Amino acid sequence: MSPILTVYRWELRKLRAQKRTYLGLGAAAAVPIIFVVAVVTGGGHPNEVAFGRYVHDTGLAIPLVMLLFGSIWLFPLITALVAGDIVASEDRNATLKMILTRSVERHQVFAGKLLATATYAVLAIAIAGVVATGAGVLASGFNPVTTLSGTVVSAPRGLLLVGASLLVYLLPILAIACIGLLLSTVFRNSGAAIVGTLMFSLLLQLLAILPGLGDLHPYLLSTQFTAWQGLLRTPTDWDPILRSLWVCTVYGAPALIAAGLVFLRRDVAES
Amino acid sequence: MADAPPIEVRGLAKRYGEILAVDDVDLTINPGDVFGYLGPNGAGKTTSLRMMLGLIRPTAGEVRLFGRNPQVSVKALNGVAGFVEAPTFYPYLSGRANLELYAAFDGGDGAGKIDEVLETVDLRDRAKDKVKGYSHGMRQRLGIASALLRRPRLLLLDEPTTGLDPAGMRDMRELVRDLGRRGITVLLSSHLMPEVEELCNRVAIIRSGRVAYEGSLEELRARAGISYRLRTIDDVLARRICERQPGIEVIDDAMPAGLLFKAPSEDVVAALSLALAGAGAPILELTPRQASLEEVFLQLTEGGPPAAEVEARPDEIEAAA
């Protein structure tokens, strides 16, 4: 097995042994259920968001509404829980000096941590999507979806679109994971990195609602959390998706490179 | 490369801002040595070890482990194991899982040795327990186990007995002694001279980041020399006479009674005794004494205090136990 895969496998095992992993993934599963219960028992519609008016017509609207609500702080926080901790925990446990004196190079350790962080983020979104879809279908049925263009697509196609939307939604999530990884590497403190990542995400959302910054909106990371809506138009609007691809790269790649450089060059003096 | 010494350090230095933590250190550790790297706390031992293991970059100089530079690649650590400060583990994993992790990070070859090394450090019964429940001594032993997984030819141990109770210190020293007997070259960092004296054949004494002495313990003992404890009926007068007496060097007059001096030969001491008697300060006690290595260590690292002033410290008491 290659050293990177070895590190990756052990990072996953370490994540499986930590409570924060279950806290994050548990929240990803629990929040959609709570949302569905609230919708069913409350009987109202979250009309102010896209697909909100359809939550009683089709269960497939539930994950789409969840994606919008979750982008404010839930999914950034879930992502930051692990991304902000994955390097800082080595400082907390003072274990970096141990693993860096074995037979894996620093860049391999970093790559393994990056892969594990991405895996966790993908898993969190997948769990949220599956649970929201399942709970939504149980509550409102597996019915056709009305797109943002007003056309109606069949339930199976709607399900495919929900899956594709989750994939597009992963772009800003992974960018946030990169920023969390950077803060984890630089701060060497889990709490500071997690809060810092969340604050960064919230700050961008604040910029999005400030007047006079309309030209900036398409290039804010927070805006990319709605890029998947391009898939729910007829015909498909690829522009926001393609923009999301490069905008998220612009946010994530420099953070990732900086994190890697700091990790490769740092003196392991305190841990 | 094949004949390269286990450790070769040349001109090694590390600066943190204004502080020069390690200053122009040269060391050569030969195969089979159990080498004591001795110095008081803060002398630069751990910083040196971190550079030897490639964890921090030297400001100047170079380390070679079996001829390879650990700053270039972890491949230089093939055949090398150890830990700086206390060995550390993932507290939420069991002792065995931690060893499995380290074995995997070594390439996987050590996985088959886990039971053996757990047996060696007497932790087999607790291997399934999470490390967060381990005592300090158990973690130290687990640290040795994780090092042995690498089948090391060179072991770097940073104060492995620190924080252990007397029984733990005894067991750890026995373990180090056993490793030395197996032919493993050991670099043992310590601030305890008795420990180094008990385990090591060669020693480097480091003071304020610089090597104050490097060589065998025998040479160090020879360097210590003999001092004399003198007590008379009038110590004030005795001191004045000593200071006037050719060849006599008073090295301590702050003892509760009497003073301590050095002399180049017994003839000089005999002449002093006559001078004292003649001056009206008859001798009550004149005792030659070989300076201990601990005293030499203190003289080298602190510039002083001489023999009689040295009192047993708590760590010595532990060490003696």
Any chance you could write out the topology, listing elements then pairs?
The complex is a heterodimer of chains A (271) and B (321).
Chain A: H1 3-16, H2 19-42, H3 61-70, H4 74-83, H5 88-93, H6 96-99, H7 106-140, E1 145-146, E2 152-153, H8 155-187, H9 190-209, H10 239-265
Antiparallel strand pairs in A: 1-2
Chain B: E1 7-16, E2 19-29, E3 34-38, H1 45-52, E4 60-65, E5 80-83, H2 95-105, H3 114-120, H4 136-148, E6 154-158, H5 166-181, E7 185-190, H6 193-199, E8 202-207, E9 210-216, H7 217-224, E10 226-232, H8 235-244, E11 249-252, E12 259-262, H9 266-279, E13 283-290, H10 293-302, H11 314-320
Parallel strand pairs in B: 3-7, 3-8, 5-6, 6-7
Antiparallel strand pairs in B: 1-2, 1-4, 8-9, 10-12, 10-13, 11-12
Helix pairs in contact in B: 3-4, 8-9
Describe the protein in words:
The complex is a heterodimer of chains A (271) and B (321). Chain A contains ten helices and two strands, in the order H-H-H-H-H-H-H-E-E-H-H-H. The relative contact order of chain A is 0.15. In chain A, strand 1 and strand 2 form a beta hairpin. With 271 residues, chain A is mainly α. Helix content of chain A is 68%, strand content 1%. A two-stranded antiparallel sheet of chain A has the order 1-2. In chain B, helix 3 packs across helix 4 and helix 8 packs across helix 9. Chain B is built from eleven helices and 13 strands. The longest helix of chain B is centred in the middle third of the chain and has 16 residues. In chain B, the strands form three sheets. A six-stranded mixed sheet of chain B has the order 5-6-7-3-8-9, with helices on both faces. In chain B, strands 11-12-10-13 form a four-stranded antiparallel sheet, with helices on one face. A three-stranded antiparallel sheet of chain B has the order 2-1-4, covered by helices on one side. Chain B has 321 residues and is an alpha/beta fold. Chains A and B meet through helix 1 and helix 6 of A and strand 5 and helix 2 of B.
